[in-house]
Amino acid sequence: MYTFWHNIIKFTKFFISVIIGFFLITFNSLFRLLRQPKNRIIVMIFIIGLTVSSYKILKLMLGVN
């Protein structure tokens, strides 16, 4: 039974490290893009558009008025 719980803990640590690595890589490349003024405007428009469209899609899917 010890090996079962040891494996569960090991895979949980692996999952957490994968999630943290994903966000670090994503935000690192995003911050690198935001350093240039031309790219900053494009990235901000994309993020705002993605947020607004996601909000509207979820609102329609869930039937929230």
For this entry, give a set of tags.
65 residues, mainly alpha
SSE map:
Blueprint: H1 2-34, H2 37-62
Overall helicity: over 70%
Distance between the termini: 51 Å
Q: What gross morphology would you assign?
A: flat
- Computed over alpha carbons, the radius of gyration is 19 Å
Give helix and strand order, one letter per element, not per position: HH
Task: Provide a count of the helices.
Answer: 2
**Overall mean pLDDT:** 91
Strand content: under 5%
Number of strands: 0
Pfam families: DUF751
InterPro entries: Uncharacterised_Ycf33
Family: Belongs to the ycf33 family.
Keywords: Membrane, Plastid, Transmembrane, Transmembrane helix
What does this structure look like?
The chain crosses the membrane at residues 14-34, 41-58. InterPro entries: Uncharacterised_Ycf33. One of its GO terms (cellular component) is plastid. It holds the Pfam family DUF751. It is found in: Plastid. This protein has 65 residues and is mainly α. It has two domains: 1-34; 37-65. It is built from two helices and no strands. It has helices at 2-34, 37-62. The longest helix is centred in the N-terminal third of the chain and has 33 residues, at 2-34. It starts with a helix and ends with a helix. The mean pLDDT is 91.
Can you summarize this structure?
By secondary structure, this protein is mainly α. Helices cover 91% and strands 0% of the residues. The mean pLDDT is 91.
